[in-house]
Amino acid sequence: MELENMQDIEKATKHGRDGLFRLGIGVLFIVGILLYVSVVNGSLPNSTILVVAAVIGGYMAMNIGANDVANNVGPAVGSKALTLGGAIVIAAIFEASGALVAGGDVVSTIKKGIIDPGLIADPDTFIWLMLAAILAGSIWLNIATALGAPVSTTHSIVGGVLGAGIAAGGWQIANWETMGKIAASWVISPVLGGIIAAFFLYSIKRTITYKDDIIEAASKVVPVLVSIMAWAFSTYLIVKGIKKLIKIDFPLAALIGLGIAVGIYFLVKPMIKKATLKLDNSKESVNQLFTIPLIFAAALLSFAHGANDVANAVGPLAAIYDSIAHGVISKKAEIPLWIMMIGAIGIAIGLALYGPKLIKTVGSEITELNQIRAFTVAMAASITVIVASQLGLPVSSTHIAVGAVFGVGFLREYIKSNYAKMEQEIIDAHDESEKEQLEAFLEEFKKASFKQKTKMMEQIKDKKRRIEEGLDFSKKERRKIKKAYQKELVKRSAFGKIIAAWLITVPVSAIMAAMIFFMIRGFLLP
User: Fold this and answer.
1) Close Cβ partners of 107 (under 8 Å, ≥ 6 residues apart)
2) For a surface tag, which of 60, 74, 123, 486 has the fewest beta carbons within 10 Å of its beta carbon?
3) What is the DSSP string of 14-47?
4) Are 354 and 66 in contact, with CB atoms under 8 Å apart?
5) To the nearest whole percent, how much of the chain has pLDDT over 90?
6) Are 101 and 140 in contact (CB under 8 A)?
7) Which sequence spans correspond to the domains of the chain?
8) Rounded to an integer, what distance in angstroms lies between the CA atom of residue 302 and that of residue 87?
9) How far is CA 395 from CA 35, 36, 383, 399, in A?
10) pLDDT on residue 184
11) How many CB atoms are located within 10 Å of the residue 425 CB?
């Protein structure tokens, strides 16, 4: 009995020990930053403030890893194309590689140009402003991660800079036109991502899974889909991922991407043809063909994310370092290697320690994903960013990816609801004496292709029309009938929580940043 009690205590304390281990690793990383910056930059004026800023920058980087990276690998994990451990390893490697290889040497000191630095009175005020902004953004990301809500790290920093900027320079310091565009992206990003993901999923259903010979259709269509994905990702990486290494305009990037896509098509076509010979004629087996493309997608999205979003963690830190080192406020600041390393390592550590919670949220807690659905989410993520960047729309990669998952889920609901209605119409069109005919018809309907289903439903509707001739339903009765067929495949609780978190990200970060700025100024003013 005593042994059983000890085992129960062991299980009960395991979660607490895991939490302490994660916290301990995070603290070690922060202490390492503190010691390194103190030794290397201790001779600079205001070195204490730089040390504090570096620690906050590391904290921000860990929060980006914990929250934002889930969008890149979550769908692959949810569809079981990748294990959780494998996804974390791939994402950590490619996030860090993207940050270090293509993160750039120079960063804008004011993210998205949301405030005018010319209206800041002196470098000290600017330093306090950036400290408040990055700390507020970090705290909000930490809260969102704890709540299991994937939010935009860019919007967190934007809110922080806006709130601290207004506290430092008044309402006139803000660029309200830019803020209006950012607010519009709260709607544009998820809707665009959802529409593109739903379009690709429906296209795959029509061209592959609704066909009589699913395997034959897959051998023809999957190479085309993989090539489109290669085109999208090649263009995406050239335009967004390596833009700080080499500047290539969009038409040339698209042309290079097209060349890569053509090469990929001829490479994968015989491989997919060979793979289909081992598969049976079912929707489940076709999913296997999308596993390897999904792994590549997770890696490439992580690389591009590391190259672009590392600036969210180290941009304000680079701005503070530049102001301390040169005593002026610049619109552009160089990023020393040690600052870039803080961002890259911090993102990887945050992902490994706290990323699994958000990976599970994106991958399995919004809607059920298989490899095909996850593939359409990855496609939507890359294509939406490309389209939005060409239209000049400030979209969020987080909102796009999560919006794509919602789009897939709501399309599934629509299809399931329609199928339930069709089945009910078939049942209503047969009376009790036609039980055997009904069962045979339903079985045939289930196996039929999309075109055959349409013809069969035309027959049923004619028969049902004759049966129901003269009947009329009130609006209330029609609403009840419609509700009976509704299948909820998107978890409404997750939907509501995530949308609410998106809407309050900028305001909450702004309010916290303003409060932190006033506290910092109060402490540091003579």
Assistant:
1) 311, 314, 315, 318, 319, 332, 333, 335
2) 486
3) HHHHHHHHHHHHHHHHHHHHHHHHHHHSTTSTTH
4) yes
5) 31
6) no
7) 21-413+490-524
8) 10
9) 37, 36, 12, 8
10) 82
11) 14
